[in-house]
Structure formats: C-alpha cells, structure tokens
Design a protein that fits this description.
about 45% helix, four-stranded mixed sheet, about 20% strand, Lambda Exonuclease, Chain A, alpha/beta
C-alpha cells in the first residue's frame, strides 16, 4: 500500500469534531503510540542462546526484547481499541485543567512560532494511516519547498518549561520524553514528511528567550529510519492482536 492509498481524506476531518472523534475510535494514534513501543520479551532461540557470552554479563540471559511482543501497557492499549470498536464510542480523556490550559494556549503558541520562524501554518485534520492507525498534527507548513509538521506542547507548570529548555539533542529528547518522540516520528511516517518541529511554549516568562523551546527532527538524525521501521513492526503486531481478539469475541471462541 502506497502513501496515497493510506491517506484517506485527512483534510475533511477537523480536529475536535464529532467525525474526528469517530475516525479515531479503534485506531492506534500518534499521541499514544508510545504504548506499543514498550515491547515485551520472548524466549531466545537456540541460535541466540548459542551466541550468548560464555561468561559475565549476558551469559545467563534467556529472553530478549521483541517488537512483535506487546508489553503490558501495549496489551491494555489494544484492549482499549477493541472496546472502542465494539461500542463505537472512543475513549474520552480525563478532564484536567493542565490539558485545558494546553489546548487554550496552543493557538497563541502557533502564532508565536509562525512569527519566529517566518512561516504560515495550516491546521489539518486527522491523518489516516491505513485502516487502523493515524494521527492529528498540530500544524503543517512548507519552508523552502519542503513539507513539515509541528507538534506543540504548552506546559502548565513553568518548571517543566525549564526542563524542556535544557534539551540539546534529539537523542536527549528520545530518552527524556519518549512519548513525544514517538508521537513526532509516527506523524512524520503517517504524513510522509521528512522534517518535524517540536516546540514547547510558555508565555509567562519575562525574557523572550525562555518562552519557546524549538527542536527539529529530520533525516540528519541517524536513528529515524530504524525507529520508523520499529513503529511499522509494532503496529503490525498490535493490529494483528486487535483483530484476533475482536474475531474471538465476536465468534464466541474466547
């Protein structure tokens, strides 16, 4: 399946609309895809056992991490998606003021980014990736003829902005904020985009240089192709498990 086949009228599904809620039901979404990236373990094959160190660290290891095996968080997430399919009702996020603050502040953050970077931002709808996955970019734009995306975070607590300001590399970003890293690179995959911008925004700082943290993820990051392949492997496994469970439940074989 090529990208044009995977992209199903994304511009017609406005974020926050009833249609947007419904299209997300049962799909593995970018904002939560990190849950299936925490892989489980399987027993080592005879070949892998033979390749273990003869002594010292790893010499007694009998299991290895496997992206086709779901961890506990991933299994729970799959069950959530199965429930959404069977009820037709997407899971509602918990109401919390920090989330409300972030949503209310996002337009101001987008305007600030637009002025600082010198680009015009577009609001887009849900981007479908096949029948079982997709994501909602905060904004999309073009710069120097290259299509790019933007993920916006507006921390409710200003001390969190201090933590973001200390980030220097994509490796650090991946280590400290894996949920946001996987969100960004899955959106890159789902939109066939080679560059993604991550920004945090806190307008309460008096000095402008602390208001925005801006990090760029692109093909200069050596691990991106491998990590996007891991997303595909994990998605294939999660979709398979979801469909198997649905089939068992619907046919009474569980």
């Amino acid at each position: 399946m090529n990208f044009l086949d995977q992209l199903l009228n994304p511009m017609d599904i406005a974020q926050g609309s009833e249609a947007w809620e419904q299209i997300r039901a049962g799909r593995f979404t970018s904002s939560e895809i990190w849950k299936i990236m925490e892989w489980g373990k399987r027993d080592m094959t005879p070949e892998e056992l033979a390749m273990r160190p003869k002594s010292g660290q790893g010499s007694r290891t009998t299991q290895v991490t496997d992206p086709t095996v779901m961890g506990k968080q991933g299994v729970t997430y799959i069950h959530q998606k199965v429930a959404e399919v069977l009820t037709g009702i997407p899971k509602q996020g918990a109401y919390a003021y920090p989330l409300v603050y972030g949503k209310e502040t996002e337009p101001l953050a987008a305007e600030y980014f637009s002025k600082q970077i010198g680009v015009d931002l577009d609001e887009v709808g849900f981007q479908c990736f096949g029948d079982h996955a997709g994501g909602s970019p905060d904004r999309m734009f073009e710069k120097d003829g290259v299509k790019m995306g933007l993920e916006i975070k507006c921390p409710f607590q200003s001390e969190n902005q201090i933590q973001y300001l200390t980030l220097k590399t994509v490796d650090e970003f991946k280590e400290k904020y894996p949920e946001y890293y996987w969100q960004c690179i899955s959106l890159m995959l789902f939109t066939d985009t080679k560059v993604w911008h991550f920004m945090t925004f806190d307008p309460r700082f008096k000095d402008d240089k602390f208001i925005m943290k801006h990090l760029i993820i692109d093909n200069n990051y050596a691990g991106i192709a491998e990590d996007q392949n891991k997303i595909i492997v994990a998605l294939e496994s999660a979709i398979k498990l979801k469909l198997e469970l649905l089939n068992q439940l619907q046919n009474g074989t569980i």
